[in-house]
Amino acid sequence: MLPLHRGIFITFEGGEGAGKSTLMEEVARQLASDGYYVVKTREPGGTHLGEHIRSLLLDHSSNHPLCAYSELCLFLAARAQQIEEIILPAMENRKIILCDRFNDSTIAYQGVARGLGSEKVAQFCDFICHGVQPNLTLYLDIDPEVGLARARRNQPAIAGARGYDRIESEGIAFHQQIREAFLAIHAQDSRRFTLLDAAQTPAIIFAEAMKRIYSLLK
């Protein structure tokens, strides 16, 4: 293991059922076995406040649905707390931070799929993050129909709720827009935003991810 002279911030992105959470766990185990200090977190969530916000955002049983602007504000509130409590301290202590979703998801989901405008949402994200940006993003690309089928197999509907969580319950056109938004981000920023084909075997995806991470750690 080479000593880190600065913290490294790596995010994991993808549509529903792409396998990003599983990949992040595998990456965390490998880096820990290599001797690195690793911090794992997720968006929204990670902090006490963030986990409460997460439950509000994913709850599909409420009779009072969130409007798109409220949804955006809640995501950004959770992120602001996450940066203050988890990400910045870990960066200052030269750790590797692995985060399940970050700004790219907000731009894709709220900016594009919710129709709030990708540029405007990106500006809000920049303001909230006050300079904190990923060193590397691993994006798992998958056909939304395949990904949703995976997600729904792995996470049965919650009893008493109208089906799956708020995001999974959106129509296929919504998820197609998200994929197109992620691909647009990759086209604009391929150096940071690395595309991994989620249709490949888990072993191949993991190997490709670690190759990219190790190149960053040199």
Chain-wise SSE layout:
Blueprint: E1 8-14, H1 20-33, E2 38-42, H2 48-58, H3 68-92, E3 96-100, H4 103-113, H5 118-129, E4 136-141, H6 144-154, H7 172-188, E5 193-197, H8 202-217
Parallel strand pairs: 1-3, 1-4, 2-3, 4-5
Structure description:
37% of the residues are buried. The chain has helices at 20-33, 48-58, 68-92, 103-113, 118-129, 144-154, 172-188, 202-217, and strands spanning 8-14, 38-42, 96-100, 136-141, 193-197. Helix 3 packs parallel to helix 5 (118-129). The radius of gyration is 17 Å and the shape is globular. The chain is of the alpha/beta class and 218 residues long. It has a five-stranded parallel sheet, with helices on both faces. It has eight helices and five strands; from the N terminus they run E-H-E-H-H-E-H-H-E-H-H-E-H.
Question: Widest sheet: strand order?
Answer: 2-3-1-4-5
- Report the end-to-end length measured between terminal Cα atoms: 10 Å
Q: What share of residues is helical?
A: 40-55%
The major beta sheet can be summarized as: 5 strands, parallel
Poorly predicted regions: 157-163
Number of helices: 8
Helix/strand class = alpha/beta
The beta-strand count equals 5
Q: Give the amount of beta strand, in percent.
A: 5-15%
H-E string: EHEHHEHHEHHEH
User: Average pLDDT value?
Assistant: 91
What shape does the CA trace take? globular
Rg computed from alpha carbons, rounded to a whole number of angstroms: 17 Å
